[in-house]
């Protein structure tokens, strides 16, 4: 599918990659990018989610800095650009853009009702925040970064949140992981799975730390979670 345009809260607009399921009708899923933009990896993930029966929409969250970023994890220069974009990213405005995306998705004729989110890396952080700050019907966070500093937000989570944590995550130290697990323990809406011996981005096909067994397990849990909460 071609990219579509979404009106931003407060003015302006940004693009998002849309993928439709067979029959062009289903619940919605907002797919939240990594630090490399809405690149080929994110587009393929969006296509895969659509193939499961969902109307999937992946917005360009770096548009306020540089629209249309599509880089990879293959070169040092691209990593430096990714860190620069991450450093300049306004999380609060990013949530605004995700809410605008979710509202757009709900309004589309292809969307049959409920809308969830799934995010990776930076997107994993934002999926957690969408659970706390939005009315998304459910949310999935893959190896979210910086969550140990956001645990106070957990009290606002009222819809199901599924979290996938990489125990060897080079961007989330063991102490931070312990804090996250302790801070969310017993939360009635949070299910957290921890994956031993895998690093950050273990589910990114083609990535340096891709682990098929862990990815298949996490993705299967995500499929079951969406089926249970989105239908």
Query: What is the overall number of helices?
Result: 6
Helix proportion of residues, in percent? 25-40%
Biggest sheet record: 8 strands, mixed
Q: Any idea of the CATH class?
A: Alpha Beta
N-to-C SSE string, H for helix and E for strand: EEEHEHHEHEEHEH
> What is the distance, rounded to the nearest whole angstrom, between the alpha carbons of the first and last residues?
23 Å
Overall 3D geometry? globular
The radius of gyration over CA amounts to 16 Å
Tell me the domain tally: 1
CATH architecture: 3-Layer(aba) Sandwich
Estimated share of beta-strand residues: 15-25%
The number of E-state strands comes to: 8
What fold name goes in the CATH topology slot? Answer: Rossmann fold
Mean pLDDT: 97
- The low-confidence runs, each spanning 5 or more residues with pLDDT under 50, are none
Order of the strands making up the biggest sheet: 1-2-4-3-5-6-7-8
């Amino acid at each position: 599918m071609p990219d579509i345009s979404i009106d931003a809260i407060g003015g302006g607009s940004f693009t998002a990659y849309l993928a439709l399921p067979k029959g062009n009708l289903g619940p919605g899923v907002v797919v939240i990018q990594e630090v490399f933009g809405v690149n080929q990896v994110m587009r393929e993930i969006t296509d895969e989610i659509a193939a499961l029966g969902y109307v999937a929409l992946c917005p360009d969250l770096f548009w306020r800095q540089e629209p249309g970023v599509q880089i990879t994890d293959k070169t040092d220069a691209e990593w430096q650009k990714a860190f620069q974009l991450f450093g300049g990213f306004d999380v609060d405005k990013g949530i605004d853009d995700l809410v605008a995306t979710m509202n757009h998705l709900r309004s589309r004729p292809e969307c049959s009702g409920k809308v969830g989110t799934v995010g990776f890396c930076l997107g994993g952080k934002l999926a957690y925040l969408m659970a706390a700050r939005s009315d998304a019907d459910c949310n999935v966070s893959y190896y979210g970064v910086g969550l140990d500093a956001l645990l106070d937000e957990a009290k606002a989570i009222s819809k199901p949140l599924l979290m996938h944590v990489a125990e060897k995550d080079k961007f989330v130290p063991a102490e931070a992981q312990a804090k996250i697990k302790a801070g969310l323990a017993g939360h009635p809406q949070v299910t957290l799975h921890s994956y031993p011996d895998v690093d950050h981005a273990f589910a990114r096909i083609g990535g340096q730390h891709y682990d098929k067994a862990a990815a298949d397990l996490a993705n299967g849990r995500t499929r079951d979670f969406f089926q249970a909460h989105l239908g």
